[in-house]
Amino acid sequence: MPTPYGSRGGMAFGAEELRVLRRALALALHPSPVSDADVQDCLRLAVAVDDAVNEGARLRAFLLADLARYRAALPGTATGYLALLEDVLGSGYQPGADDLAALRALRGNPVAAALLARCRTVAEQAVRARLSGRATQATVPAPRPLVPASRTRLLALPGGRSDADDQAAPKPKTPKSPPVKPAAPEPPRPVPTPAEVFPPKRRPADPPHQRAAG
To answer: Which of 53, 139, 160, 169 has its CA 20 to 30 A from that of 86?
Structure first.
């Protein structure tokens, strides 16, 4: 079974495990038929690597807790504290303000002075990385608001339509109303005769006393 190598994140493999690892890498680079035995060996190696990684994480957590105990008991535990700090720095540990303060108090020790310079460099690099990450986030434009799903076109689905399809497709004709027939012309009026235009004057009736005398 592979075992974690100290707290530096490395891992030690045995001869048989290295054989299986080389076989797995060869299969990844040049795929070929694999026997059941090779499959089982690769599976066992994967499980062993997972166990070793978990064990390495537990070991690192233990070392960090031990480092905090040594730091709290300074200056009497300076030798153990400096050795542990150098060990965890190799595994990517980010020294904090407590570590820098402890090293400044021990800077009369050559080992402590060297570790103080190293921790300052690591701390400055971490600060620059954080500032660079913030600057990168600040320059990234804000995401555009998403269009509600009810307003989007189903272009990616079978049967979806695009703008070009809409332009090429004939537009449906709007049904037209039946044409309005013009009104029939009125028949020509007859031309009046002169008698109708100038009717003869009626003769006035005779008075009653004249009719009686006659």
So the answer is: 53
